[in-house]
From TrEMBL:
Signal peptide: none annotated. The keyword Transferase applies. Keywords: Acyltransferase, Repeat, Transferase. The keyword Plastid does not apply. This is Sugar O-acyltransferase, sialic acid O-acetyltransferase NeuD family. Belongs to the transferase hexapeptide repeat family. GO terms for molecular function: acyltransferase activity.
Amino acid sequence: MNQIKLLGVSQDSVALIFDALEHLYQIEYFNLYTNIAVDFKPFLPVKKVDYAILDHAELNNVQTDKYFFGTAGGRTKRLVFEFFQENYGVSREQFVQLVMPNSYVSAASLLENATFVEPGVTVGPQSKIRFGTYLKRGVTVGHHNDIGEFCDINPGVVLSGKIKIGDDCIIGSGTVVRDNIEIGENSIIGVGSVVTKDIPTNSVAFGNPCKVVKENKL
């Protein structure tokens, strides 16, 4: 694979993505395409990384091109994807997965494209991780779970079994979710929560036990 084009730019995330792409695909030069004007200050990696930041008008999408995101936040990735899909015909099928070594993904599970799995993650059998979702270091996904699109599952989260998480959710670091729980789309679960009951759509919730504290209006 000669080149993977990155869509969107985030100062905080792009170094992690560069590292993963270099490790998994041996790519050492990156083009990042922006959909909005950005003030991107070059970072200083230990190893020199060659990259170019280009305006979206310079993108020439052909069916064989491969993509990933240059940003990590689920909400931002959704907006970036919708922009490039509508204006340049970029499809979900053109995105690669980033599954880092020292993670375990069951052969009986399903990872959709544009998923990012950091080291130390475990994904059990019959679980689905949908488009654009990010599993960060030390996450445990048990059996028969269904995690929606563009979710951020933060470090150390434990998802037991038969859990459904809707699209665009953020699950805070160290959260534990018991079996047979449903978390509605566009919800935020605070750091260290213990979720023992279903969480409605568009909720902000935290605590042990986890309780809804307000509506998520974003």
